[in-house]
Every structure is written in structure tokens, then in C-alpha cells.
TrEMBL record:
Any one biological process term the GO annotation gives: negative regulation of coagulation
Gene (name only): Hs3st5
Keywords, comma-separated and alphabetical: Disulfide bond, Glycoprotein, Golgi apparatus, Membrane, Signal-anchor, Transferase, Transmembrane, Transmembrane helix
Domain called Sulfotransferase: residue spans: 91-335
Membrane topology: Single-pass type II membrane protein
EC number: 2.8.2.-
Alphabetical list of Gene3D superfamilies matching this protein: P-loop containing nucleotide triphosphate hydrolases
GO cellular component, one term: Golgi membrane
Record localization: Golgi apparatus membrane
Residues forming the catalytic site: 100
Name of the protein described by the UniProt record: Sulfotransferase
């Protein structure tokens, strides 16, 4: 009889323990949810005078298409009713480049800010003739849902080097904010090559060595016909953009510093976009395994960039690196002069 009572008591304790753990997990999740749902903060924005004193919900209320359906089911709440204010709006800022400069990292980090809503994929509207022919409403429908007071941002790094893009963006919005993230030009060119090389290897295809592509074998000089080299001549592309937009509408982000010290770079972007400072060191933590900073949205939700980021570069002949850096140097100096930002490039 005593043994049965002990078994019954043990079972009861197990049930109670399970309930306690379940309740604790629910409370933790609820706290995280409330942390994201309830607070509001003012937006001071030069993007719309009427919204200067407006308020916007924090991160979890930036619902995208898939979540709208979920919040329209069941009992109504203030948050659910507020969803009717969501719209798909054209971007007020675009990360226009550069390829392999850190555009994805920049977009994901800016998405930490409650006033920013990002397009999840590269739209390639302005650089793709077929997409552009579909019209501006097609482009708008590719944007995420957001509140009118929020800033929608998309990134398509091919925009920076495509001839037709500056005029096309100007026709959409002549006062749009343009973000360019750059890395040391030789490093960026090698990173560009590395991504293409990886794609070839996945398909069991052979590919030339970087040195053979970057240096013209006939002249032994830098091969400016090689796209990875051309993309790194930043000033040449920027001059084309300046025919349509004043330099004040551009902000240069140091992609090398974004890797090692992301917060100061993000704070500069907040200031450029006229956003209240919201991204803090709490939102960024270094992942020693990955060798990169990861993102912390709240006590529950963390995010690291895809594993494809930070590929190991192949070894490149030091003499080729020296030749490339010497080639890029005068272009870099002009880039510093135009943008007003000097970067620590060799």
C-alpha cells in the first residue's frame, strides 16, 4: 500500500513539475512577445513632415505577408486591429551596392531598428529591363508590409554598376536616400572572384585562377575588362550617379569596419536616415565560431548571417595584390575627395 502511494506521489510530482516548466516557458515567451509588441517610440523623419511626431510599434509588429493571415484569425486585439494600417510602400532608402561589400549584412543589421522594414530578397527592378517593364506597381507589390511611418529599404548591389539605374531611380523618387557599402577594392575583387569560383566548383566546372583574370597576360597590367576589377573602381560608378543625385543623398558605409566594429557604422546610418538611435551593443554579439557579429532582436530571437558569408579567399600572388592596390590608389583618393570620407585602405 505504501509503495502504491509513493508511486502515485511521484507521478503527481512529475505532472506538477511539467506544468511548472510549461508555465515558465510560456511566461518567457510572453515576456519576449510583450517586449516586442507593446513599446512605442517617436520617429523624427525627414521623409514625411506629417509623421515627425508619429509613433510606431516595435519589431514584432513589422508583420510581413505570411503573418497577416495569422493575426486576422481569432479574437481581435488592439495589435490585430492596427494591422489594417499596414501598407506596401516604395522604399525611402535603397542599398545600391556594392557587390561583395556587405550589402546583406548591412540590410539585416538595419532591420534591427524598429522604424526600418526590409525587403527580404533582391528585387532587381531597376537593373533588369524585363522587371522594369512591369512598372512601378509591380515593384511596390514586391515590398514588405509596413506602417506609413516606417522606412522600407531594399538592396540590389547590381544597381551601383548598371548604367540605366540612376535615371530610373531618379524618376521614381528624386529625393531618395542611397546607401553604398564598400570594402578595400582588392579584397572586394578577390571576394567577388571567390563567390564565382565556389559556384563553378559546385557544378564541377573548372575556372581560371584569380591572377590570370585580374592581370592582362599581353600587357602584364591590370585587366580593366574583368568585371571584378571594374566593380572596385568605385569613383567611376559614383560619378554616373552624381549626374542625377547630389552627394548629400549618398551615405558611404565602411564594409570592412562593419565586420569588426558594426555599431559605429550603424549609428552613422541611423543619423543619415534621420532615425532616432535605437540599435545598441545589446543587439550585436560576436560569434567566435563564425568569426562574425550576429544579431539579437530580443531575449528570444537571435539571428546570424548565412553560412555562405565569410568565405575563405584563395591565396593570391602578393605581387598581383600589390599591383592591384597601386592601380586602385588614385581612384580611391578621388573617391575620398568626392564623398568626404577617407577610409583606411592601403
Amino acid at each position: 500500500m505504501l509503495f502504491k502511494q509513493q508511486v502515485w506521489l511521484r507521478q503527481k510530482l512529475l505532472v506538477l513539475g511539467s506544468l511548472a516548466v510549461g508555465s515558465l516557458l510560456y511566461l518567457v515567451a510572453r515576456v519576449g512577445s510583450l517586449d516586442r509588441l507593446q513599446p512605442i517610440c517617436p520617429v523624427e523623419s525627414r521623409f514625411g513632415g506629417a509623421h515627425n511626431q508619429a509613433e510606431f510599434p516595435l519589431r514584432a509588429l513589422q508583420f510581413k505577408r505570411g503573418l497577416l493571415h495569422e493575426f486576422r484569425k481569432g479574437n481581435s486585439s488592439k495589435e490585430q486591429v492596427h494591422l489594417h494600417d499596414l501598407v506596401q510602400q516604395l522604399p525611402k532608402a535603397i542599398i545600391i551596392g556594392v557587390r561583395k561589400g556587405g550589402t546583406r549584412a548591412l540590410l539585416e543589421m538595419l532591420n534591427l531598428h524598429p522604424a526600418v522594414v526590409k525587403a527580404s530578397q533582391e528585387i532587381h527592378f531597376f537593373d533588369n529591363d524585363e522587371n522594369y517593364a512591369k512598372g512601378i506597381e509591380w515593384y511596390r507589390k514586391k515590398m514588405p508590409f509596413s506602417y506609413p511611418q516606417q522606412i522600407t529599404i531594399e538592396k540590389s548591389p547590381a544597381y551601383f554598376i548598371t548604367e540605366e539605374v540612376p535615371e530610373r531611380i531618379y524618376k521614381m523618387n528624386s529625393s531618395i536616400k542611397l546607401l553604398i557599402i564598400v570594402r578595400e577594392p582588392t579584397t572586394r575583387a578577390i571576394s567577388d572572384y571567390t563567390q564565382v569560383l565556389e559556384g563553378k566548383e559546385r557544378k564541377n566546372k573548372t575556372y581560371y585562377k584569380f591572377e590570370k583574370l585580374a592581370i592582362d597576360p599581353n600587357t602584364c597590367e591590370v585587366n580593366t575588362k574583368y568585371k571584378a576589377v571594374r566593380t572596385s573602381i568605385y569613383t567611376k560608378h559614383l560619378e554616373r550617379w552624381l549626374k542625377y543625385f547630389p552627394i548629400e543623398q549618398f551615405h558611404i558605409v565602411d564594409g570592412d569596419r562593419l565586420i569588426t566594429e558594426p555599431l559605429p557604422e550603424l549609428q552613422l546610418v541611423e543619423k543619415f536616415l534621420n532615425l532616432p538611435p535605437r540599435i545598441s551593443q545589446y543587439n550585436l554579439y560576436f560569434n567566435a565560431t563564425r568569426g562574425f557579429y550576429c544579431l539579437r532582436f530580443n531575449i528570444i530571437f537571435n539571428k546570424c548571417l548565412a553560412g555562405s558569408k565569410g568565405r575563405i579567399h584563395p591565396e593570391v600572388d602578393p605581387s598581383v595584390i600589390t599591383k592591384l592596390r597601386k592601380f586602385f590608389h588614385p581612384f580611391n583618393q578621388k573617391f575620398y575627395q568626392i564623398t568626404g570620407r577617407t577610409l583606411n585602405w592601403p
